[in-house]
Amino acid sequence: MQMSLTKDDLIRYVGRQLEMFFPDGMKFDISQHISSYNLALERLEYCLDSICVKGYHDEKGNVTFSHLHADQYATFIWFFSNSVWRLEENDFLSSKLLQLNRLLHQIFISYKCDMPDHFFLGHPIGTVLGNAKYGDFLAVLQGVTVNTNNDLKIGKGVFLGANSKIIGSKPIGDRASVAVGTLLFETSVPDNHVAMNIDGKTIIRKRKREKCVAQRYFNIDI
After folding, report:
1. Contact at 8 Å (CB) between 130 and 149?
2. What's the pTM?
3. pLDDT digit string (tens) for 105-162?
4. CA distance 37 to 43
5. Are residues 23 and 68 in the same domain?
6. Number of domains within the chain
7. β-bridge mates for residue 153, sequence order
């Protein structure tokens, strides 16, 4: 993976951000979190490699990651917070990383959230992804809200358009799409269907195109 900062510089960069935004006197000891950091980078590369959006690969097809690319950096911070929680059970540092993502990108994804291996965050300002069961190849744009509900299942290859909302526990099927500004309140969406709001009413219909909307963001057949 081609990185805008070296691995050593990136973790120091994160440490300085944590110490600046949270001046509680707690120093970020890099040596204590190397395993979690390396795991986060491995997971990040695996995730970004599946994304076909411009800026995620160089001319030779190598994965690229920039700390100044907000979507990529938000994704990295989540992977780091979740990896710290997985390997270290360190709620304190994981919470700081979660809050760092909120401060920098106005996005909330709990470090305990069961996010898939592959997901795409597109300008995710104002997005809140609650704890739910997310399928692989999830594409999420800005202003999305998914409530926390352990019974809520979101299928594989789902697209959540800007300012869409999912409230309740009804499932969202594989390769389904929730259109811009659509509110789903205790409403299920079958596989290969699109949900949209038209004149204040929620309309759910079978998609007309051969490929689902999420396929636009990933280079793997969903």
Report:
1. yes
2. 0.95
3. 999 999 999 999 999 999 989 999 999 999 999 999 999 999 999 999 999 999 999 9
4. 10
5. yes
6. 2
7. 133
Are 79 and 152 in a shared domain?
no
With beta carbons less than 8 A apart as the criterion, state whether 42 and 86 touch.
no
- Residue 212 Cα distances to 139, 174, 202, 209, 221, angstroms: 11, 9, 19, 7, 10
- pLDDT tens for 13-53 read 999 999 999 999 999 999 999 999 999 999 999 999 999 99
Would 111 be classed as within a structural domain? no
Query: What is residue 12's three-state secondary structure?
Result: helix
For residues 66 and 4, the answer to whether their CB atoms sit within 8 Å is: yes
Q: What are the Cα distances from residue 157, in Å, to 137, 175, 176, 211?
A: 5, 4, 7, 10
Helix (H) or strand (E) holding 42: helix 34-48
Q: Which of 79, 82, 161, 178 is nearest to 124 (CA)?
A: 161
Q: For residues 68-99, b (16+ Cβ closer than 10 Å) or e, as one string? A: ebbbbbbbbbbbbbbbbbbeeebeebbbbbbe
Do 129 and 98 share a structural domain? no
Domain termination site, one of 74, 106, 138: 106
Note whether residue 112 is domain-resident: no
Domain boundary (106, 134, 159) is at 106
DSSP code at position 218: B
Task: Based on the fold, state whether residues 93 and 125 are members of the same structural domain.
Answer: no
Nearest alpha-carbon partner for 162 in 144, 177, 145, 148: 144
Contact 145, 166 (CB under 8 A): yes
